[in-house]
């Protein structure tokens, strides 16, 4: 949680990260491949749960590729009222639960 941050740090190479909850980052307007990082191999290879909450300025999430988040089961996007663009969620082949509210 960082209410004044304008960008997210590079986190994609955290190979053992299972849950990522990003919330109340009101100055972030987009999420792109910068979050994923660069390099070879799977990105967020162990991530099972991803939540974006209370991000009032978030407009766009893009840059998701087929080899990323291959174990993601739960995706929650809540209270991101300006979000108007998402990546192709069909790339999340393990996704079991998708919740988008407000």
UniProtKB/TrEMBL annotation:
InterPro entries, A to Z: LRR_dom_sf
SUPFAM superfamilies named in the record: L domain-like
Protein name: NB-ARC domain-containing protein
């Amino acid at each position: 949680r960082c209410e004044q941050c304008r960008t997210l740090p590079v986190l994609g190479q955290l190979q053992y990260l299972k849950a990522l909850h990003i919330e109340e980052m009101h100055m972030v307007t987009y999420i792109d491949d910068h979050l994923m990082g660069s390099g070879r191999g799977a990105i967020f290879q162990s991530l099972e749960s991803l939540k974006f909450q209370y991000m009032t300025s978030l407009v766009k999430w893009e840059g998701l590729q087929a080899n990323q988040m291959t174990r993601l089961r739960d995706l929650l996007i809540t209270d991101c009222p300006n979000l108007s663009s998402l990546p192709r969620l069909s790339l999340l082949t393990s996704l079991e639960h998708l919740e988008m509210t407000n």
